[in-house]
Amino acid sequence: QVQLVESGGGLVQAGGSLRLSCAASRNGFSIDSMDWYRQAPGKERELVATCTDGGDTNYADSVKGRFTISRHNAKNTVYLQMNNLRPEDTAVYYCKVLAYLPRGFGRRETYTYWGQGTQVTVSS
Protein backbone atom coordinates (compact mmCIF):
# COMPACT_ATOMS: atom_id res chain seq x y z
CA GLN A 1 0.00 0.00 0.00
CA VAL A 2 0.95 3.60 -0.54
CA GLN A 3 0.58 5.77 2.56
CA LEU A 4 0.06 9.50 2.24
CA VAL A 5 0.72 12.12 4.89
CA GLU A 6 -0.55 15.63 4.32
CA SER A 7 0.49 18.79 6.10
CA GLY A 8 0.38 22.56 5.78
CA GLY A 9 -3.26 23.48 6.25
CA GLY A 10 -4.44 26.18 8.60
CA LEU A 11 -6.24 29.48 9.04
CA VAL A 12 -5.22 32.45 6.92
CA GLN A 13 -6.70 35.82 6.04
CA ALA A 14 -7.91 36.57 2.55
CA GLY A 15 -4.99 37.46 0.32
CA GLY A 16 -2.62 35.27 2.30
CA SER A 17 -0.69 32.16 1.30
CA LEU A 18 -0.35 28.57 2.40
CA ARG A 19 1.72 25.65 1.16
CA LEU A 20 0.37 22.13 1.38
CA SER A 21 2.56 19.04 1.26
CA CYS A 22 1.71 15.40 0.69
CA ALA A 23 4.43 12.81 1.21
CA ALA A 24 3.97 9.30 -0.14
CA SER A 25 5.50 6.11 1.20
CA ARG A 26 5.75 4.04 -1.96
CA ASN A 27 6.30 0.59 -0.42
CA GLY A 28 7.36 -0.86 -3.75
CA PHE A 29 4.80 0.95 -5.88
CA SER A 30 5.61 3.37 -8.67
CA ILE A 31 3.75 6.67 -8.73
CA ASP A 32 2.06 8.13 -11.77
CA SER A 33 -0.02 11.25 -11.20
CA MET A 34 -0.25 13.21 -7.96
CA ASP A 35 -3.26 15.48 -7.59
CA TRP A 36 -4.95 17.85 -5.17
CA TYR A 37 -8.70 17.88 -4.57
CA ARG A 38 -10.83 19.87 -2.18
CA GLN A 39 -14.23 19.55 -0.60
CA ALA A 40 -16.13 22.46 0.89
CA PRO A 41 -19.02 21.93 3.33
CA GLY A 42 -22.14 20.82 1.49
CA LYS A 43 -20.31 20.52 -1.82
CA GLU A 44 -18.87 17.68 -3.85
CA ARG A 45 -15.16 17.00 -3.91
CA GLU A 46 -13.56 18.83 -6.83
CA LEU A 47 -10.25 18.61 -8.63
CA VAL A 48 -7.91 21.52 -7.91
CA ALA A 49 -4.69 20.61 -9.70
CA THR A 50 -2.91 17.66 -11.25
CA CYS A 51 0.72 16.81 -11.88
CA THR A 52 1.89 13.86 -13.97
CA ASP A 53 5.11 11.98 -13.31
CA GLY A 54 6.56 13.90 -16.24
CA GLY A 55 5.73 17.22 -14.60
CA ASP A 56 2.77 18.23 -16.75
CA THR A 57 0.27 20.25 -14.73
CA ASN A 58 -3.35 21.25 -15.02
CA TYR A 59 -5.56 23.48 -12.86
CA ALA A 60 -9.18 24.19 -12.15
CA ASP A 61 -10.20 27.52 -13.64
CA SER A 62 -11.00 28.87 -10.18
CA VAL A 63 -7.37 28.57 -9.03
CA LYS A 64 -5.41 29.32 -12.19
CA GLY A 65 -2.84 32.02 -11.63
CA ARG A 66 -3.08 31.67 -7.84
CA PHE A 67 -2.16 28.05 -7.08
CA THR A 68 0.91 26.11 -8.19
CA ILE A 69 1.29 22.35 -7.99
CA SER A 70 4.75 20.83 -8.00
CA ARG A 71 6.36 17.56 -7.04
CA HIS A 72 9.72 16.27 -5.91
CA ASN A 73 9.94 12.80 -7.35
CA ALA A 74 12.96 11.75 -5.30
CA LYS A 75 11.05 12.63 -2.13
CA ASN A 76 7.74 11.25 -3.46
CA THR A 77 6.13 14.50 -2.38
CA VAL A 78 3.63 16.79 -4.04
CA TYR A 79 3.11 20.40 -3.03
CA LEU A 80 0.37 22.95 -3.53
CA GLN A 81 1.44 26.56 -3.19
CA MET A 82 -1.69 28.66 -2.68
CA ASN A 83 -1.40 32.42 -3.04
CA ASN A 84 -3.97 35.21 -2.91
CA LEU A 85 -6.35 32.95 -1.03
CA ARG A 86 -10.04 33.75 -1.01
CA PRO A 87 -12.80 32.78 1.44
CA GLU A 88 -14.25 30.51 -1.25
CA ASP A 89 -11.03 28.47 -1.13
CA THR A 90 -12.05 27.28 2.33
CA ALA A 91 -12.26 23.49 2.22
CA VAL A 92 -10.64 20.26 3.25
CA TYR A 93 -7.84 19.58 0.80
CA TYR A 94 -6.94 16.03 -0.16
CA CYS A 95 -4.04 14.67 -2.15
CA LYS A 96 -4.68 11.77 -4.47
CA VAL A 97 -2.02 9.50 -5.89
CA LEU A 98 -2.29 7.08 -8.77
CA ALA A 99 0.19 4.31 -8.09
CA TYR A 100 0.97 1.17 -10.02
CA LEU A 101 2.79 -2.12 -10.10
CA PRO A 102 4.30 -3.09 -13.45
CA ARG A 103 3.04 -6.47 -14.64
CA GLY A 104 5.19 -7.02 -17.70
CA PHE A 105 4.52 -6.51 -21.40
CA GLY A 106 3.72 -2.84 -20.72
CA ARG A 107 0.83 -3.69 -18.40
CA ARG A 108 0.22 -1.96 -15.10
CA GLU A 109 -1.87 -2.78 -12.07
CA THR A 110 -3.10 0.61 -10.87
CA TYR A 111 -4.32 1.77 -7.49
CA THR A 112 -5.71 5.05 -6.21
CA TYR A 113 -4.82 6.36 -2.77
CA TRP A 114 -6.14 9.38 -0.86
CA GLY A 115 -4.59 11.43 1.90
CA GLN A 116 -6.38 12.06 5.17
CA GLY A 117 -7.20 15.65 4.28
CA THR A 118 -6.05 18.95 5.70
CA GLN A 119 -8.31 21.87 6.55
CA VAL A 120 -7.75 25.22 4.87
CA THR A 121 -9.80 28.11 6.22
CA VAL A 122 -9.65 31.57 4.66
CA SER A 123 -11.21 34.40 6.64
CA SER A 124 -12.52 37.54 5.00
Give an overview of the whole structure.
The chain has 124 residues and is mostly beta strands. The protein has strands spanning 3-7, 10-13, 18-25, 30-39, 46-51, 57-59, 67-72, 77-82, 91-102, 108-114, 118-123. Strands 2, 4, 5, 6, 9, 10 and 11 form a 7-stranded mixed β-sheet that branches. A 4-stranded antiparallel β-sheet has the order 1-3-8-7, with no helix packed on it. It starts with a strand and ends with a strand. 29% of the residues are buried.
How are the secondary structure elements laid out?
Elements: E1 3-7, E2 10-13, E3 18-25, E4 30-39, E5 46-51, E6 57-59, E7 67-72, E8 77-82, E9 91-102, E10 108-114, E11 118-123
Parallel strand pairs: 2-11
Antiparallel strand pairs: 1-3, 3-8, 4-5, 4-9, 5-6, 7-8, 9-10, 9-11
Inertia-based shape: elongated
Helical content class: under 10%
| Amino-to-carboxy terminus distance | 40 Å
Report the strand count. Answer: 11
Strand content: over 45%
Low-confidence stretches: none
Task: Return the string of H and E elements.
Answer: EEEEEEEEEEE
Number of helices, counting only DSSP H or I runs of 4 residues or more: 0
Round the mean pLDDT to the nearest integer and report it. Answer: 95
Structural class comes to mainly beta
Question: Could you describe the largest sheet, including whether it forms a barrel?
Answer: 7 strands, mixed
Please give the radius of gyration in angstroms. Answer: 15 Å
Summarize the structure.
This protein is mainly β and 124 residues long.
Key structural traits:
11 strands; 59% strand; single chain; 4-stranded antiparallel β-sheet; 7-stranded mixed β-sheet; 124 residues
